[in-house]
Each structure stands twice: as structure tokens, then as C-alpha cells.
Design goal:
- Belongs to the pectinesterase family.
- One of its GO terms (biological process) is pectin catabolic process.
- Pathway: Glycan metabolism; pectin degradation; 2-dehydro-3-deoxy-D-gluconate from pectin: step 1/5.
- Acts in the modification of cell walls via demethylesterification of cell wall pectin.
- By secondary structure, the chain is mainly beta.
- The chain has one domain: Single-stranded right-handed beta-helix, Pectin lyase-like (Pectate Lyase C-like, 3 Solenoid), CATH 2.160.20.10.
- An eleven-stranded parallel sheet has the order 1-2-5-8-11-14-17-20-23-25-26, covered by helices on one side. Strands 3-6-9-12-15-18-21-24 form an eight-stranded parallel sheet, with no helix packed on it.
- One 2-acetamido-2-deoxy-beta-D-glucopyranose binds next to α1.
Length: 325
């Protein structure tokens, strides 16, 4: 489905995984002791100069690279025109409210360095922040690239047009978040649970957008996106589909979710590759709203039974019992 004459596939990324910190067992014992006795450092970012830093990136760069105790970075309200890279583990970014604390950049995807925010390290948390890429509707422009394991987002907003949220690699949890875009705007090969999130399509009436483009490439990969208790809206009837397969084993489930008439009756498409109809896993479980009816869905998608939906609809989907705090 060619859209607006823009590049019609999500961008690939070639950056190697953030380097893993190797710790010998003795040091590990020591750092465990340190964790239990030393609280996380708390620093403040304030554009007026009253905090520890004026720029968010400066606060991240000052956090320990070995991350043993973690750093909580409190960000005062403001529009931060910064491109951010989180390359060390156990960083938490917290805003006052997503509407008042905005991290913004304007750049289409030309390289791995293009997203407004790139999360390369593990154990990241963000609360009450807006992540935005203002490039507009002529090319893919990523607001956030999530390429580290165990990332959690609470009350955050992700705003762009094409390819807004690159949920690329690792296990991720989004709760009470808002994600806006038109084409393939949640995409990549991560394993993610979206819990009570609002996805808003800005695909114009008469065009065809897609909420997701999950990239799972083989049956052995444990990746896929699960949306539970979410809300899907858009600019008019039939402007978008739920998803299309970037990878042949693309896996996406919508459960207990409000789906407005913005979603076309067919629900999904095979991105012009009939073979993918046999390998993708696209399902719906107890959704509601005018766009939720499964009677018109493509025959190769699933109206799930409770037992089939069960693995997708709790935090266990992302092993959350092990790492969500
Ligand atoms: C972590 O890095 C800091 C410097 O950033 C250093 O002082 C500390 O000893 C390191 N801790 C471990 C456990 O390696
Ligand atoms: C973004 O940058 C492009 C040029 O690269 C410019 O044409 C456009 O006006 C900018 N948009 C915003 C919202 O700043």
C-alpha cells in the first residue's frame, strides 16, 4: 500500500547492541552490597539553571557507566530541544507532566543517530514525558528507539508521523502512554506490552495507515506486541489497519481494547506478500467499538479464545514479574 509517496518500509538499523558490562563475580558481590546500602542518585535538570544540569544529556553523561545504584533524573517543565542517547543502565527520567515536559527534535531517519531519543542500555524507566519528532509527513522520523532490555514507560507521549516508536529489541512495558503517528508507527522486533495506552492514528481520510509493523523474523523468536485495555482512534472511518508484517513471523495481539471505526473491517494486510499470511500471528481478544468487529477481518487473523489470549494479556508477556518494580 504506497502511502503519501514516502518511503514505505520502516528503517533498518545496524547498530550493534550496547556493549554489555562484564563484571567478575567478586565485583558483582560487591555491587550487590552497594545496591542494598546505597540509594539511587537523584539529580535535577532545569533549563533556568537552578538544577544540577541544564541539559538532559549532560545528566545522563554524568551517571555512572556501570550503573550499579542507578540515577534518577528529575526534569523540570520545559521544551528540551535535544537529541538524547541513553548508553548506561539504570537511568530513570521523570517529568512533572507529559504536557509540560517535552523532549523534541526534528530529523528524518538518515542513520541510527537520527531518533530524538535512543535507548541503548538496559533497565531504563521514563515517567510523564513527551518524546517528539517534528519532521512531519514526508519521511520516516523516529521519536524514540528502544533497543535496550527491560525498559518501562509510564504516562509518556510519543509523537511523530511515520515510524514514531521503534520498539526494536528487548522486553518493554508501556502503561498509560499515548502514541501518535500514521504509518507503521509502532514497529520493530521488540517484545512489548502496551497496558491501557491510547494509540492515535493521524493517517488522513482516504489514505491507508497502519498502527503497527512488528518485525519478528522466525518462529523461534519470542518477540511481539500485545495491547491490553488500550484505545485506538483516528481521523475518520477506515483510515488505518491494525498492522502489517515487517517480518514474516510478525506477531501482534489486541485484547480488551476499544477500536474505533478508524480501523478498516479487514483489520490487517500482508504487505503485498501472500506467503506471510501463513506465518504471521495476528489476533484479537474481546475488543469493542465500531472497528473491532471480527466478521470482516482477513481470514488469516485470529479471533482468540481465552486460553489462546492468556499468554499475551498479563505482565508475564514481558517477564514483568522479574523486573517491573
Ligand atoms: C562504578 O563507576 C564509578 C565511577 O563512575 C566508580 O567509582 C565505582 O567504583 C564503579 N563501581 C563498580 C562496582 O565498578
Ligand atoms: C523540520 O526541519 C525541516 C528541514 O529539515 C524544515 O523544513 C521544517 O520546517 C522543520 N519543522 C519544524 C516543525 O521545525
Amino acid at each position: 500500500m504506497p502511502l503519501y509517496g514516502v518511503v514505505n518500509s520502516p528503517c533498518r538499523s545496524h547498530r550493534a547492541a550496547a556493549s554489555t558490562v562484564v563484571v567478575v563475580s567478586l565485583a558483582l558481590l560487591c555491587s550487590c552490597f552497594v545496591i542494598s546500602s546505597m540509594p539511587s542518585a537523584v539529580v535535577t535538570v532545569d533549563q533556568s539553571g537552578k538544577g544540577d544540569h541544564r541539559r538532559i544529556q549532560d545528566a545522563i553523561d554524568a551517571a555512572p557507566a556501570n550503573g550499579s545504584a542507578g540515577t534518577i533524573i528529575r526534569i523540570k517543565p520545559g521544551v528540551y530541544r535535544e537529541k538524547i542517547v541513553v548508553d548506561r543502565p539504570y537511568v530513570t527520567l521523570t517529568g512533572t507532566s507529559a504536557s509540560s515536559t517535552v523532549i523534541t527534535w526534528n530529523e528524518s531517519w538518515v542513520s541510527d543517530e537520527s531518533p530524538t531519543v535512543s535507548l541503548l542500555a538496559s533497565d531504563f524507566v521514563a515517567k510523564r514525558l513527551t518524546f517528539q519528532n517534528t519532521f512531519g509527513n514526508t519521511a520516516p522520523a523516529v521519536a524514540v528507539r528502544v533497543a535496550g532490555d527491560r525498559a518501562a514507560f509510564y504516562g509518556c507521549r510519543f509523537v511523530s508521523f511515520q515510524d514514531t516508536l521503534l520498539d526494536e529489541r528487548g522486553r518493554h512495558y508501556y502503561r498509560g502512554c499515548y502514541v501518535q503517528g500514521a504509518t507503521d508507527f509502532i514497529f520493530g522486533n521488540g517484545r512489548a506490552l502496551f497496558d491501557k495506552c491510547h494509540l492515535h492514528s493521524t493517517s488522513p481520510v482516504g489514505a491507508g495507515g497502519a498502527f503497527t509493523a512488528q518485525q519478528r523474523s522466525s518462529e523461534s523468536e519470542d518477540t511481539g506486541y500485545s495491547f491490553v485495555g488500550c484505545k485506538l482512534t483516528g481521523l475518520g472511518a477506515g483510515t488505518a489497519i491494525l498492522g502489517r508484517p515487517w517480518g514474516p513471523y510478525s506477531r501482534v495481539v489486541f485484547a480488551l481494547t476499544y477500536i474505533s471505526s478508524t480501523v478498516r473491517p479487514q483489520g490487517w494486510d500482508d504487505w503485498g506478500d501472500l506467503a506471510k499470511q501463513r506465518t504471521v500471528f495476528y489476533g484479537q481478544y474481546q475488543c469493542y467499538g465500531d472497528g473491532s468487529k471480527t466478521s470482516g477481518r482477513v481470514a488469516w487473523s485470529h479471533d482468540l479464545m481465552q486460553a489462546e489470549a492468556a499468554p499475551f494479556i498479563t505482565k508475564a508477556w514481558v517477564d514483568g514479574q522479574q523486573w517491573l518494580r
